[in-house]
Structures are given as structure tokens and as C-alpha cells.
Design brief:
binds NADP nicotinamide-adenine-dinucleotide phosphate; alpha/beta
């Protein structure tokens, strides 16, 4: 039976465990560690899993140990579990979701030969709609990477990438949900400005985001399906209302803002890794 340890029961830790347990993994084989007893109590009540304040306990006997703490805490956590990982009778695959933290820096804090897989997930995995990219380290063979891919697939779409692309992936999908939340928030405010009651503007904006996302996903999954450009062209009749709106978005620099924002995100990811 595969034993999964999760260190850090925050946003991503919870999104991960909810996907894993929702996909049929017995919650008794999942153990989460976090310093906050109240948070552990919440997770235990909601998912029925094993919890601990001791990260070594989460690492003990783990086949896969997910590191879901903030990037600056990763070295502390790795140092605290290294000995346990070395003593484990079974092989423990270390899976880090921390933005910016390189596989090489993780490997140097672990017993020689420990397989490491780096994953860049995002929070929609909380609702089974995550987008994750993963890359294996020097000691992770195809089998290790595929096993992590299989676990992560319980949380949504998973793709394999080269590690050099992970900072760019962070800018697209890792931080991407926040961009869509912000766009939706702006649409709600603009709807209110046009005289709609806020609850109505919110309901319509969210339903529109959902519908548009589903159309794009359908286009992506079908051979010859419509891509985002085609979908937008189809709803933009010449001289019509949508064209009037998208022209203003272009004039006001929507695309330029995204280029700059995502470059800033990627650079920040690199910076986090360096520090
Ligand atoms: N959020 C995202 O959208 C996103 C997307 C992709 C990747 N990531 C990556 O995912 C990681 C986690 O992010 P998050 O948003 O889930 O952060 P978070 O909500 O702050 O969760 C981190 C959790 O780790 C706990 N923690 C701190 N020190 C610990 C230790 N020594 N042992 C065990 N647990 C410890 C924290 O507890 P306290 O709060 O009590 O300190 C907190 O509950 C980060 O490295 C981030 O780069 C996040």
C-alpha cells in the first residue's frame, strides 16, 4: 500500500490531499504535518487522515513525501527529514511543489541518490481542475516521474516538462488562477459601474468565466477544436459590441500588461530559487 506524507497543510497541501483522497486513496495512508495544531484538527475532521506536528513522522515510511511549505522553509524541512528518509526501508521519493526551489538544491540536502521530483501545481486542484507540470531530478527515473504523475493526475491535468521551463510554468499556470480571479473581479466592478447590482454582476461574471473556460477546454480536447483566438473571433461580429470592448482592451494595453506581469512572475520565481 502506497504511503503518502505531506509536509505543510496550507493551501497547496490541502488541495493536494483533497485530490488524492477524493480519487480513492485510503485517507489512513496519507499523513500531513504542519506546526499549527488547529489547522491539523481541521484537516483531520474534514478528510479523516493522520496528522502530526512532527515532519519526521510524516517522512517515516513514506513512499512519496510531498514538501508543501513556503520556499524559504524548504531547506529547514529537508534537513529535518533527511535522516528519516535515509533510514526508511522503502525508497522515498521527495516531491517539492515550492516555487523557485531547484532540484539540485533539494538533492544537496538529502541522502545521496534520493529521487526528487519537482512539481509546479496550482490551487484549482482543490476542485479537481488543477494544472501541474513536473520534472524529475538526477536520481528520479521514468518510473518515479510517472508514479508522481499518476498521483498528481487525481488533481487535474499533469504535464511533464524540463526543469528549465518550470519558472515559466509558474508564470502561466502556477500563479495563473489569480489573474483570472482579478479579471473576474474587474468585470464585476465594471458591471456595477454600469448600474447592475453587485450580486447580479458577480453571478453573471462567474458564470461567464466558467462557460468560457469550458468552451476553451472542449476546443483543446477535440481534434480540430476551436482555440481561444478562434472562439473570440467567432463572438466578435464586425462593428459589433464585443469588438468595441476588445478594441479598448487592446488599446489600454491588456496584452502588454500580461507580458510584463508574467515576466515579473518568472523573474520572482528565479529569485526565490536563488535565495
Ligand atoms: N498557492 C499557490 O497558488 C501555489 C501554486 C504553486 C506552488 N505553490 C507553492 O506551494 C508551496 C506552499 O504554498 P501555499 O500557498 O500552500 O502556502 P501556505 O498556505 O502558507 O502553506 C504552507 C503551510 O506549511 C506550514 N509550515 C510552515 N513551516 C512548516 C514546517 N516546518 N513543517 C510543516 N509545515 C510547515 C505553514 O504553517 P504556518 O502557516 O503555521 O507557518 C502552512 O500551513 C509554496 O512553496 C509555493 O511556492 C503555491
Amino acid at each position: 500500500m502506497t504511503r503518502i506524507g505531506i509536509i505543510g497543510g496550507g493551501n497547496i497541501g490541502e488541495a493536494l490531499l483533497s485530490g488524492i483522497i477524493g480519487n480513492g486513496t485510503d485517507s489512513k495512508n496519507v499523513i500531513v504535518s504542519d506546526p499549527a495544531a488547529a489547522r491539523l484538527e481541521q484537516l483531520k475532521e474534514k478528510y479523516g487522515l493522520i496528522t502530526t506536528e512532527d515532519s519526521q513522522e510524516a517522512a517515516d515510511g513514506a513512499d512519496f513525501l510531498f514538501i508543501c511549505v513556503k520556499p524559504d522553509i524548504v531547506p529547514v524541512v529537508l534537513e529535518s527529514v533527511a535522516e528519516t528518509v535515509e533510514k526508511n526501508d522503502n525508497e522515498t521519493v521527495i516531491v517539492s511543489v515550492a516555487a523557485g526551489v531547484t532540484i539540485n538544491s533539494i538533492e544537496t540536502l538529502l541522502p545521496a541518490g534520493t529521487p526528487v521530483v519537482r512539481v509546479m501545481p496550482n490551487t484549482p486542484m482543490l476542485v479537481g481542475k488543477g494544472a501541474s507540470a513536473l520534472a524529475g531530478g538526477r536520481f528520479a527515473d521514468e518510473g518515479h516521474v510517472e508514479a508522481v504523475q499518476e498521483i498528481m493526475s487525481a488533481t487535474g491535468t499533469v504535464v511533464k516538462v524540463k526543469e528549465k521551463d518550470i519558472d515559466a510554468v509558474t508564470a502561466v499556470s502556477g500563479s495563473g488562477p489569480a489573474y483570472f480571479f482579478m479579471v473576474t473581479e474587474a468585470m464585476i466592478d465594471a458591471g456595477v459601474n454600469l448600474g447592475l447590482p453587485r450580486p447580479l454582476a458577480q453571478e453573471l461574471a462567474i458564470a461567464t468565466a466558467d462557460g468560457a473556460a469550458q468552451m476553451m477546454a472542449q476546443g483543446q480536447s477535440q481534434e480540430g477544436g476551436d482555440d481561444p483566438v478562434t472562439l473570440r473571433t467567432k463572438v466578435s461580429s464586425p462593428g459589433g459590441t464585443t469588438s468595441a470592448a476588445t478594441r479598448v482592451l487592446d488599446e489600454e494595453g491588456l496584452r502588454r500588461a500580461f507580458y510584463k506581469a508574467m515576466e515579473a512572475c518568472k523573474n520572482r520565481s528565479v529569485e526565490l530559487g536563488e535565495s
